[in-house]
Fold:
Amino acid sequence: MEEITTISDLYAAFGGAAAIAEFLDVSRSASGNWSSEGKLPAHHFPKIHDALAEKGKKVSQSLFRFTRKKPEEGSPFRISEQSQITPETGAKTAQQAPAIAADPQEGVSAEAVR
Structure:
């Protein structure tokens, strides 16, 4: 299975920035920004992964921003929903992915923080 490891190859697999924008239902400007940055938001990984798998291709996770958000001053620590989206979780959208929060009073909770 061919693995796509560069943004330019990813965009080429979909037919360009405009095609990726349409596929992900985002603006062309957003798609162009991601191309310039070299990374897409992690919540798009499942949809892109599945589409490319149907074509016999694999996409590198390094092309996505799987990051953790820093806690805001005075608020409990929260892991970004984006960091929870992986093929192993089966989550298809950020809303379906589990979120984890730490409450200093109660310890760590696996309940969604929404």
About this structure: Residues 81 and 95 are 8 Å apart (CA to CA). Residues 81-86, 91-114 have pLDDT under 50 and may be disordered. The beta strands are 2-4, 40-41, 57-59, 64-65, 101-103, 107-109. Residues 2-65 form a domain with the 434 Repressor (Amino-terminal Domain) fold (CATH 1.10.260.40).
